[in-house]
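Re: the multi-chain job from yesterday

Posting the exact lines I submitted so nobody has to dig through the queue logs.
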Amino acid sequence: MVIYGVYIVSKSGGLIYNYDHNIPKVETEKSFSFPLDLKLQYENKKVIVAFGQRDGINVGHVLQSVNGSPVIGRSTEDGRDVFDLIEVKENYPLSLRFGRARATTNEKIVLASMFYPLFALASQLSPVPKSSGIESLTADTFKLSCFQTLTGVKFIVVTDPNMQGAELVLKRIYEIYSDYALKNPFYSLEMPIRCELFDTSLHTLLELVEKSGTANL
Amino acid sequence: MTIYNMYIFDRYGTLLYYGEWNRTKQAGMSREEEGKLMYGMLFSIKSFVAKISPLDPKDGFLHYKTSKYTLHCLETASGLKFVMNTDNQAQGVRDLLKKIYGEIFVKYAIRNPLWNVGQPINSELFKNKLDAFVKQTPIHAVRAS
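And the result, C-alpha coordinates for all chains:
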Protein backbone atom coordinates (compact mmCIF):
# COMPACT_ATOMS: atom_id res chain seq x y z
CA MET A 1 0.00 0.00 0.00
CA VAL A 2 1.84 3.05 -1.20
CA ILE A 3 0.14 6.43 -1.37
CA TYR A 4 2.08 8.92 -3.44
CA GLY A 5 -0.01 12.02 -2.92
CA VAL A 6 -3.32 13.64 -2.08
CA TYR A 7 -4.94 16.49 -4.01
CA ILE A 8 -8.14 18.37 -3.19
CA VAL A 9 -9.71 20.38 -6.01
CA SER A 10 -12.44 22.92 -5.34
CA LYS A 11 -15.66 22.97 -7.34
CA SER A 12 -14.27 25.66 -9.64
CA GLY A 13 -11.25 23.54 -10.51
CA GLY A 14 -8.59 25.18 -8.36
CA LEU A 15 -6.17 23.20 -6.26
CA ILE A 16 -6.95 23.90 -2.60
CA TYR A 17 -4.80 21.28 -0.94
CA ASN A 18 -1.88 19.10 -1.90
CA TYR A 19 0.27 16.74 0.07
CA ASP A 20 3.12 14.66 -1.31
CA HIS A 21 3.29 11.64 0.85
CA ASN A 22 5.88 9.28 -0.38
CA ILE A 23 7.30 10.12 -3.77
CA PRO A 24 10.25 7.87 -4.57
CA LYS A 25 13.43 9.60 -5.69
CA VAL A 26 14.55 8.61 -9.15
CA GLU A 27 18.20 9.60 -9.36
CA THR A 28 21.23 8.25 -11.15
CA GLU A 29 24.77 9.49 -10.82
CA LYS A 30 27.22 8.37 -13.46
CA SER A 31 30.65 9.19 -14.65
CA PHE A 32 30.77 10.15 -18.33
CA SER A 33 33.67 10.30 -20.75
CA PHE A 34 34.03 12.57 -23.76
CA PRO A 35 31.96 12.95 -25.90
CA LEU A 36 28.77 12.94 -23.87
CA ASP A 37 26.35 10.46 -25.42
CA LEU A 38 23.24 12.28 -24.21
CA LYS A 39 21.73 15.31 -25.85
CA LEU A 40 20.85 17.97 -23.30
CA GLN A 41 18.51 20.89 -23.73
CA TYR A 42 17.60 23.94 -21.67
CA GLU A 43 13.86 24.10 -21.11
CA ASN A 44 11.67 25.75 -18.44
CA LYS A 45 14.78 26.83 -16.48
CA LYS A 46 16.01 23.26 -16.27
CA VAL A 47 18.63 21.30 -18.16
CA ILE A 48 16.84 18.20 -19.40
CA VAL A 49 17.78 15.15 -21.42
CA ALA A 50 16.32 15.64 -24.89
CA PHE A 51 17.70 12.54 -26.56
CA GLY A 52 19.47 9.39 -25.48
CA GLN A 53 18.83 6.87 -22.80
CA ARG A 54 21.20 4.76 -20.69
CA ASP A 55 21.52 3.15 -17.25
CA GLY A 56 18.25 4.46 -15.88
CA ILE A 57 18.65 7.95 -17.34
CA ASN A 58 15.66 8.65 -19.53
CA VAL A 59 14.48 11.42 -21.81
CA GLY A 60 12.95 14.16 -19.66
CA HIS A 61 15.27 13.67 -16.68
CA VAL A 62 16.76 16.80 -15.23
CA LEU A 63 20.46 17.42 -14.71
CA GLN A 64 20.83 17.91 -10.96
CA SER A 65 24.53 18.17 -10.35
CA VAL A 66 27.91 18.22 -12.08
CA ASN A 67 30.82 16.71 -10.12
CA GLY A 68 28.73 16.98 -6.97
CA SER A 69 27.94 20.68 -7.28
CA PRO A 70 24.24 21.37 -7.79
CA VAL A 71 23.00 22.85 -11.06
CA ILE A 72 20.89 25.99 -10.74
CA GLY A 73 19.16 27.02 -13.94
CA ARG A 74 21.78 26.30 -16.60
CA SER A 75 24.91 26.95 -14.56
CA THR A 76 26.76 25.19 -11.76
CA GLU A 77 27.23 26.66 -8.31
CA ASP A 78 30.42 28.48 -9.26
CA GLY A 79 28.66 30.14 -12.18
CA ARG A 80 29.97 28.11 -15.10
CA ASP A 81 27.52 27.32 -17.87
CA VAL A 82 26.70 23.60 -18.05
CA PHE A 83 26.61 23.56 -21.83
CA ASP A 84 30.09 25.09 -22.11
CA LEU A 85 31.33 22.66 -19.50
CA ILE A 86 30.23 19.53 -21.31
CA GLU A 87 31.70 20.67 -24.61
CA VAL A 88 35.28 20.83 -23.32
CA LYS A 89 37.19 17.56 -23.47
CA GLU A 90 39.58 18.49 -20.65
CA ASN A 91 36.71 18.54 -18.12
CA TYR A 92 36.10 14.84 -18.53
CA PRO A 93 35.52 12.42 -16.88
CA LEU A 94 32.47 14.26 -15.57
CA SER A 95 30.22 12.90 -12.92
CA LEU A 96 26.64 13.94 -13.72
CA ARG A 97 23.58 13.27 -11.64
CA PHE A 98 20.23 13.02 -13.37
CA GLY A 99 16.83 12.61 -11.79
CA ARG A 100 13.15 12.70 -12.55
CA ALA A 101 11.85 16.22 -12.00
CA ARG A 102 9.36 16.65 -9.17
CA ALA A 103 6.28 18.66 -10.00
CA THR A 104 6.53 22.19 -8.62
CA THR A 105 3.59 23.82 -6.85
CA ASN A 106 2.71 25.72 -10.00
CA GLU A 107 2.76 22.55 -12.07
CA LYS A 108 0.50 20.89 -9.53
CA ILE A 109 -2.01 23.72 -9.81
CA VAL A 110 -1.95 23.26 -13.58
CA LEU A 111 -2.41 19.49 -13.21
CA ALA A 112 -5.33 19.93 -10.87
CA SER A 113 -7.13 22.25 -13.23
CA MET A 114 -6.31 19.89 -16.09
CA PHE A 115 -8.16 17.06 -14.39
CA TYR A 116 -11.37 19.05 -14.30
CA PRO A 117 -12.14 18.94 -18.07
CA LEU A 118 -11.02 15.31 -18.29
CA PHE A 119 -13.56 14.46 -15.62
CA ALA A 120 -16.31 16.33 -17.46
CA LEU A 121 -15.40 14.87 -20.87
CA ALA A 122 -15.47 11.32 -19.54
CA SER A 123 -19.09 11.69 -18.60
CA GLN A 124 -19.97 13.51 -21.83
CA LEU A 125 -18.41 10.83 -24.05
CA SER A 126 -20.05 8.00 -22.17
CA PRO A 127 -21.65 5.26 -24.31
CA VAL A 128 -24.29 4.68 -21.62
CA PRO A 129 -26.65 7.16 -19.97
CA LYS A 130 -26.06 8.82 -16.61
CA SER A 131 -22.38 8.12 -16.22
CA SER A 132 -20.29 9.91 -13.63
CA GLY A 133 -16.88 11.39 -14.39
CA ILE A 134 -13.58 9.56 -13.91
CA GLU A 135 -13.56 7.55 -10.69
CA SER A 136 -10.21 5.92 -11.17
CA LEU A 137 -7.51 6.23 -13.78
CA THR A 138 -4.82 3.60 -14.10
CA ALA A 139 -1.44 3.89 -15.76
CA ASP A 140 1.45 1.43 -15.53
CA THR A 141 3.15 3.33 -12.69
CA PHE A 142 0.26 4.61 -10.60
CA LYS A 143 -3.47 4.64 -10.02
CA LEU A 144 -5.41 7.82 -9.46
CA SER A 145 -8.70 7.61 -7.60
CA CYS A 146 -11.14 10.46 -7.48
CA PHE A 147 -14.20 11.07 -5.36
CA GLN A 148 -16.48 13.99 -6.08
CA THR A 149 -18.78 15.21 -3.32
CA LEU A 150 -22.31 16.45 -3.97
CA THR A 151 -21.02 20.00 -3.68
CA GLY A 152 -18.44 19.45 -6.40
CA VAL A 153 -15.26 19.21 -4.34
CA LYS A 154 -12.94 16.53 -5.74
CA PHE A 155 -10.68 14.42 -3.56
CA ILE A 156 -7.89 12.74 -5.47
CA VAL A 157 -5.32 10.22 -4.26
CA VAL A 158 -2.44 8.94 -6.35
CA THR A 159 -1.42 5.45 -5.27
CA ASP A 160 0.44 2.38 -6.34
CA PRO A 161 -1.41 0.59 -9.24
CA ASN A 162 -2.26 -2.43 -7.05
CA MET A 163 -3.87 -0.40 -4.28
CA GLN A 164 -7.27 -1.65 -3.18
CA GLY A 165 -9.87 0.27 -1.25
CA ALA A 166 -8.85 3.77 -2.30
CA GLU A 167 -12.54 4.76 -2.12
CA LEU A 168 -12.48 4.17 1.62
CA VAL A 169 -9.45 6.38 2.02
CA LEU A 170 -11.18 9.10 0.00
CA LYS A 171 -14.29 8.91 2.17
CA ARG A 172 -12.11 9.22 5.27
CA ILE A 173 -10.34 12.23 3.78
CA TYR A 174 -13.77 13.74 3.11
CA GLU A 175 -14.65 13.22 6.78
CA ILE A 176 -11.42 14.88 7.86
CA TYR A 177 -12.12 17.74 5.44
CA SER A 178 -15.61 18.30 6.84
CA ASP A 179 -14.42 18.00 10.44
CA TYR A 180 -11.27 20.07 10.38
CA ALA A 181 -11.56 22.38 7.38
CA LEU A 182 -15.26 23.14 6.99
CA LYS A 183 -15.89 23.42 10.75
CA ASN A 184 -12.91 25.69 11.19
CA PRO A 185 -14.28 29.23 11.60
CA PHE A 186 -11.19 30.70 9.97
CA TYR A 187 -11.50 28.61 6.84
CA SER A 188 -13.31 30.17 3.89
CA LEU A 189 -14.70 27.98 1.12
CA GLU A 190 -12.76 27.55 -2.14
CA MET A 191 -9.60 28.86 -0.48
CA PRO A 192 -6.43 26.84 0.10
CA ILE A 193 -6.72 24.72 3.25
CA ARG A 194 -4.25 25.79 5.92
CA CYS A 195 -5.47 24.11 9.07
CA GLU A 196 -3.07 22.36 11.38
CA LEU A 197 -5.59 19.84 12.66
CA PHE A 198 -6.49 18.92 9.11
CA ASP A 199 -2.82 18.35 8.27
CA THR A 200 -2.12 16.19 11.29
CA SER A 201 -5.23 14.02 10.93
CA LEU A 202 -4.54 13.51 7.25
CA HIS A 203 -0.94 12.47 7.94
CA THR A 204 -2.14 10.06 10.63
CA LEU A 205 -4.66 8.56 8.23
CA LEU A 206 -2.10 8.08 5.46
CA GLU A 207 0.37 6.49 7.84
CA LEU A 208 -2.32 4.16 9.15
CA VAL A 209 -3.23 3.11 5.60
CA GLU A 210 0.41 2.49 4.75
CA LYS A 211 1.02 0.39 7.81
CA SER A 212 -2.11 -1.68 8.07
CA GLY A 213 -4.01 -1.25 4.81
CA THR A 214 -7.57 -0.11 4.35
CA ALA A 215 -9.18 -3.01 6.21
CA ASN A 216 -9.75 -1.20 9.51
CA LEU A 217 -10.79 2.24 8.27
CA MET B 1 -20.09 -7.90 -19.34
CA THR B 2 -20.29 -6.14 -22.61
CA ILE B 3 -18.44 -4.05 -25.12
CA TYR B 4 -19.98 -0.71 -26.02
CA ASN B 5 -17.91 0.81 -28.77
CA MET B 6 -14.46 1.23 -30.21
CA TYR B 7 -12.39 3.97 -31.82
CA ILE B 8 -9.16 3.67 -33.80
CA PHE B 9 -7.08 6.82 -34.20
CA ASP B 10 -3.87 7.38 -36.07
CA ARG B 11 -1.03 9.44 -34.66
CA TYR B 12 -2.38 12.68 -36.09
CA GLY B 13 -5.76 12.24 -34.45
CA THR B 14 -7.70 11.10 -37.53
CA LEU B 15 -10.55 8.79 -36.64
CA LEU B 16 -9.67 5.75 -38.78
CA TYR B 17 -12.49 3.55 -37.65
CA TYR B 18 -15.46 3.61 -35.35
CA GLY B 19 -17.51 0.58 -34.39
CA GLU B 20 -20.30 0.15 -31.88
CA TRP B 21 -22.07 -2.84 -30.42
CA ASN B 22 -24.22 -2.21 -27.39
CA ARG B 23 -24.07 1.55 -27.09
CA THR B 24 -27.20 3.01 -25.50
CA LYS B 25 -26.42 6.73 -25.49
CA GLN B 26 -25.17 8.84 -28.37
CA ALA B 27 -22.95 11.81 -27.65
CA GLY B 28 -25.35 14.27 -29.31
CA MET B 29 -22.88 15.41 -31.97
CA SER B 30 -21.58 14.20 -35.31
CA ARG B 31 -19.20 11.24 -35.37
CA GLU B 32 -16.40 13.46 -36.60
CA GLU B 33 -16.82 15.88 -33.73
CA GLU B 34 -17.06 13.09 -31.22
CA GLY B 35 -13.84 11.60 -32.58
CA LYS B 36 -12.05 14.90 -32.17
CA LEU B 37 -13.32 15.28 -28.63
CA MET B 38 -12.27 11.76 -27.75
CA TYR B 39 -8.80 12.20 -29.25
CA GLY B 40 -8.43 15.52 -27.47
CA MET B 41 -9.29 13.90 -24.18
CA LEU B 42 -6.81 11.04 -24.71
CA PHE B 43 -4.12 13.51 -25.71
CA SER B 44 -4.65 15.51 -22.51
CA ILE B 45 -4.79 12.35 -20.41
CA LYS B 46 -1.47 11.29 -21.89
CA SER B 47 0.28 14.49 -20.91
CA PHE B 48 -1.50 14.56 -17.56
CA VAL B 49 -0.30 11.03 -16.80
CA ALA B 50 3.27 11.81 -17.85
CA LYS B 51 3.35 14.77 -15.48
CA ILE B 52 1.59 13.35 -12.44
CA SER B 53 3.31 9.96 -12.54
CA PRO B 54 5.71 9.49 -9.60
CA LEU B 55 8.00 7.24 -11.67
CA ASP B 56 8.94 7.15 -15.34
CA PRO B 57 5.94 5.72 -17.17
CA LYS B 58 6.47 3.09 -19.87
CA ASP B 59 3.08 2.22 -21.32
CA GLY B 60 1.52 5.28 -19.72
CA PHE B 61 -2.26 5.49 -19.58
CA LEU B 62 -4.03 2.11 -19.51
CA HIS B 63 -7.65 2.66 -18.59
CA TYR B 64 -10.06 4.83 -16.64
CA LYS B 65 -13.28 3.94 -14.94
CA THR B 66 -16.45 5.90 -14.26
CA SER B 67 -19.55 4.71 -12.44
CA LYS B 68 -20.97 3.18 -15.64
CA TYR B 69 -18.18 2.29 -18.06
CA THR B 70 -14.45 1.71 -18.45
CA LEU B 71 -12.36 3.15 -21.26
CA HIS B 72 -9.33 1.11 -22.26
CA CYS B 73 -6.62 2.53 -24.44
CA LEU B 74 -3.74 0.87 -26.26
CA GLU B 75 -1.19 3.08 -27.93
CA THR B 76 1.19 1.39 -30.34
CA ALA B 77 4.77 2.46 -30.96
CA SER B 78 3.67 4.09 -34.20
CA GLY B 79 1.15 6.26 -32.37
CA LEU B 80 -2.02 4.40 -33.34
CA LYS B 81 -4.58 4.47 -30.57
CA PHE B 82 -7.05 1.65 -30.03
CA VAL B 83 -9.78 2.73 -27.65
CA MET B 84 -12.53 0.48 -26.35
CA ASN B 85 -15.38 1.24 -23.99
CA THR B 86 -16.69 -1.67 -21.96
CA ASP B 87 -18.65 -2.03 -18.76
CA ASN B 88 -16.81 -2.10 -15.44
CA GLN B 89 -16.66 -5.89 -15.13
CA ALA B 90 -14.71 -6.58 -18.31
CA GLN B 91 -11.27 -8.14 -17.83
CA GLY B 92 -8.37 -8.56 -20.21
CA VAL B 93 -9.43 -5.86 -22.63
CA ARG B 94 -5.84 -4.79 -23.21
CA ASP B 95 -4.97 -8.22 -24.60
CA LEU B 96 -8.08 -8.04 -26.73
CA LEU B 97 -6.96 -4.70 -28.15
CA LYS B 98 -3.52 -6.13 -28.87
CA LYS B 99 -5.20 -8.97 -30.75
CA ILE B 100 -7.35 -6.55 -32.70
CA TYR B 101 -4.20 -4.65 -33.63
CA GLY B 102 -2.23 -7.76 -34.61
CA GLU B 103 -4.89 -9.96 -36.12
CA ILE B 104 -7.44 -7.57 -37.58
CA PHE B 105 -5.87 -4.18 -38.14
CA VAL B 106 -2.56 -5.37 -39.56
CA LYS B 107 -4.18 -8.13 -41.63
CA TYR B 108 -7.16 -6.32 -43.06
CA ALA B 109 -6.25 -2.62 -43.00
CA ILE B 110 -2.48 -2.30 -43.32
CA ARG B 111 -2.20 -5.14 -45.83
CA ASN B 112 -5.12 -3.83 -47.85
CA PRO B 113 -3.62 -2.20 -50.96
CA LEU B 114 -6.67 0.03 -51.39
CA TRP B 115 -6.27 1.64 -47.97
CA ASN B 116 -4.12 4.74 -47.70
CA VAL B 117 -2.41 5.42 -44.41
CA GLY B 118 -4.17 8.22 -42.59
CA GLN B 119 -7.51 7.72 -44.34
CA PRO B 120 -10.62 6.34 -42.61
CA ILE B 121 -11.07 2.61 -43.14
CA ASN B 122 -14.09 1.89 -45.34
CA SER B 123 -13.29 -1.73 -46.06
CA GLU B 124 -16.28 -4.02 -45.63
CA LEU B 125 -13.96 -6.97 -44.95
CA PHE B 126 -12.31 -5.13 -42.06
CA LYS B 127 -15.68 -4.28 -40.56
CA ASN B 128 -16.95 -7.85 -40.84
CA LYS B 129 -13.81 -9.38 -39.41
CA LEU B 130 -13.77 -6.92 -36.49
CA ASP B 131 -17.46 -7.53 -35.79
CA ALA B 132 -17.00 -11.27 -35.86
CA PHE B 133 -13.91 -11.03 -33.67
CA VAL B 134 -15.58 -8.85 -31.06
CA LYS B 135 -18.75 -10.95 -30.99
CA GLN B 136 -16.87 -14.20 -30.31
CA THR B 137 -14.93 -12.79 -27.35
CA PRO B 138 -16.01 -13.91 -23.87
CA ILE B 139 -16.37 -10.26 -22.74
CA HIS B 140 -19.01 -9.64 -25.37
CA ALA B 141 -20.70 -13.03 -25.13
CA VAL B 142 -21.76 -12.97 -21.48
CA ARG B 143 -24.32 -10.25 -22.07
CA ALA B 144 -25.89 -12.12 -24.97
CA SER B 145 -26.40 -15.35 -23.02
